[in-house]
Specification:
The protein has 190 residues and is an alpha/beta fold. It is built from 6 helices and 6 strands; from the N terminus they run E-H-E-H-H-E-H-E-H-E-E-H. It has a single domain, classed as Rossmann fold.
Length: 190
């Protein structure tokens, strides 16, 4: 049986964002784990406009090419990790928009979270994301990577230099995502 596809989705799109280097670090962890085929999806590159489909996503009657491409991308994923900043005690609008575009493509797939921010480490964004992903019938895992005061982990080289807590949290989350991706595969194929 082939390895499940893990899609790491970078939520932040603004200039000077920390999301991309954090996602690059986590991508390396995921590849090194050997548990997945890993894809890095940057919402800044996907560039979805504000939801512009005339039909409800449940109908899967997409009319726009960008929606059809987004649907095909998400459909091939077996598990997801959302790398998200915390904006105003929640996650950002770009990620909400990307989630809202689709419905069936997200279902019965595990979701993990790498969040970053100030003192809370993005945990309030993760809590909000848990509600939304659960409504989309995704299975959010308990294990997460929360990075408080994230700038301390960004080096002058532009890379993340994680501590032991971040490393072990990432390993635990990847292991749980792999277990659930395998367990949920028959449900999606049934």
């Amino acid at each position: 049986m082939s390895k499940p596809v893990l899609q790491i989705i970078v939520a932040s799109t603004r200039p000077g964002r920390a999301g991309r280097p954090i996602a690059d670090w986590f991508h390396g962890k995921a590849v090194d784990s050997g548990l997945f085929e890993v894809e890095l999806i940057d919402l800044a590159e996907v560039g979805l406009p504000f939801l512009d489909e005339p039909n409800h996503p449940r109908l899967r009657q997409y009319v726009n090419a960008h929606t059809k491409e987004w649907s095909a991308t998400v459909d091939r994923g077996d598990a997801f990790v959302f790398v998200t900043p915390e904006y105003n005690h929640s996650f950002n609008a770009v990620l909400k928009n990307a989630l809202d575009y689709l419905h069936h493509e997200w279902q019965h797939k595990p979701a993990g979270f790498v969040s970053y921010g100030g003192v809370s480490g993005g945990t309030r964004a993760t809590n909000s994301l848990r509600q939304v992903t659960s409504t989309l019938r995704m299975i959010p895992v308990l294990e997460a990577v929360n990075i408080p005061f994230y700038t301390q982990f960004l080096g002058e080289d532009g890379k993340v230099h994680p501590n032991d807590i971040m490393e072990s949290a990432a390993d635990e989350m990847l292991a749980e995502l792999a277990r659930l991706a395998g367990a949920l595969r028959p449900i999606r194929q049934g």
